[in-house]
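Structure tokens please, single chain.
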Amino acid sequence: MADLRAGLIGLGMMGRHHARVLGSLEGVELVAVADPAGDVHGVAGGRPVLSSIDELIEQKLDYVMVAAPTGLHEEIGLKLAAAGVHCMVEKPLAHDTESSERLAKAFADAGLVGAVGHIERYNPALQQARARIEAGDLGDLYQVATRRQGPFPGRIADVGVVKDLGTHDIDLTAWVTQQTFTSVSARTTTRSGRPHEDMVAAVGQLSKGTITSHLVNWLSPLKERTTVITGEKGAFIADTLHADLTFYANGSVQTTWDDVSRFRGVSEGDMVRFAFAKPEPLRTEHEQFRDAVLGKDADIVTMEQGLATVKVAEAMIESAKNGTVITF
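Here you go.
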């Protein structure tokens, strides 16, 4: 079987990584790349560097990776759907709910594979957590708490921290628990002088009763990517910066020292940091999308799921603006 013909639009900070992976992905030929600013990072590798999605479509491609700014996702995506080209769009799916709905509908109506690049789903630590939760290692899930903070990335100009970083946490929380958000409440602030929020604290509830909390900002010198999942049997801590997963089990040994027992509440059990393979999440993401285009079983973030994430993100922003709890 001939290799799938792929294209890439957007050669910025993320686009250069997509070019690297697509250029070495088994079963895929990266045919051409496109960016109106040209190949600023020198990643084309001798391939044609085009200036628009229209020129890219003319290359008779099977699919396109869209790594352009969020505000351009709808325009580019709709052209690809009209041309019958499968597509994966960098997260978030689009800049607002209405645009996301139009994109998801266009690809569904055309019978095309449409996906969103929520890369955290493919972090080995979260992949392990998801499998172990499904196997019952935590029992009933009580809470998911995420912390995602670090310095401001100068490359982001068109959305705030909720849609840029917070969408990671919204998607991974829904995916790792296999639940949907039923309500959110949030508070935001803007401290950097930009038009969009740069810090958010949000709480939520999921469809099976699990509660969530999310602290996300661009204002910290400490870079942190932590997910804590607490259940009836203990807690998982996923450090997605290092792809580590640690399990803290509830203790089964009775504490006879009354003062310690009263202070600690749930007793401490074994602590295990799991050993597992750690493939690059971006490569795993592209392998899954390639397989989906080929009609194989694949774990992709569908555009419908990407739409749900955008809805929750916009609800957080609305909640912060109006001081209300938003329900779905």
